[in-house]
Amino acid sequence: MSDNNPFGGSFGSNGGQYATTVQYGGTAPAPAKVALGDAAGAPSAPPATGDVIKDTTTAAFAADVIQESRRQPVLVDFWAPWCGPCKQLTPQLEKAVKAAGGKVKLVKMNIDDHPSIAGQLGIQSIPAVIAFKDGQPVDGFMGAIPESQIAEFITKVGGKGNGAPAVAEALAAAAEARDAGDMQTAADIFDAILAQAPETVEAIAGLGDLLFEAGDTEGAEALLATAPEAKKDAPALAALRAKMALAAQAATLGNPAEFERRLAENPKDHQARFDLAMIQNARGERTAAADNLLAIIKADRAWNEDGARTQLLQFFEAWGMTDEATLAARRKLSALLFS
């Protein structure tokens, strides 16, 4: 081992498939020596994402990597703006780390701005990913590898552990991203979960819903078809199918202004109110849709063989049992039926 290595230890020495040929004690890599470099289309550094992904500097490296790796494994992604394969690898790494649910952290270092660490580790090609544990580099790989191999590497470094909590944490992160309006991040997390656990119905439903909302009904249907037979009736999948069916039904109803005009002329036109509720639901106007169906139930429970209540229950299924609109409308329905 070279005296230039300030960390000690070695990585890739266990003969695993991810063993790297990086040698300690080198100098910072020049662009001409990068094996897979591409000078075109220089990317900007991606923003840090949550607690498990961040950018680091030479000054912060000891805290972000060495000290942090004593608590949990840390992957260091050495990249540069002129490196084409880095643009391919880094997003895949981020997706896999998010999906891992906290088993590892990812720290990204731009070697153009901070060359000394890469030089001390003797990194000669980028992208290069080095895993640190207990303050020591223990394993790594170079180049843009497939997502499946990234997931295997993370499992190797972070351990299999209990997969259920990791998936649950990743699903929660996807839901948080969606609630914040970051649909792309949510989709990336769902996609990464499915790459590692393809039978996760919550991820199938979550990604399918994002596809449907984006107008890709065929993509959503194709994704639903991948659900395992034993789980095809899972609530999350049933909710998405119900939502898609309701939207398809609403698309055939016509102009909502016409139903509003009919109701203005005759508030007892229950069919117009029912059709308007269907369109409002398709637009995402859940409270208005529920209120119109509740108005029919209040005025004439027996209308269309209790059709308004039946349709409202279908809305509940599509919206989800814990949705705010579901909870509010269910309280109103209960008051109508039992008070």
Automatic annotation (TrEMBL):
Leader peptide range in chain numbering: none
Organism: Rhizobium loti (Mesorhizobium loti)
Thioredoxin domain ranges (all copies): 34-159
UniProt xrefs under PROSITE patterns: THIOREDOXIN_1 (PS00194), THIOREDOXIN_2 (PS51352)
Similarity comment: Belongs to the thioredoxin family.
GO CC annotation, single: cytosol
GO molecular function, one term: protein-disulfide reductase activity
Keywords attached to this entry: Disulfide bond, Electron transport, Redox-active center, Transport
Name the UniProt record assigns to this protein: Thioredoxin
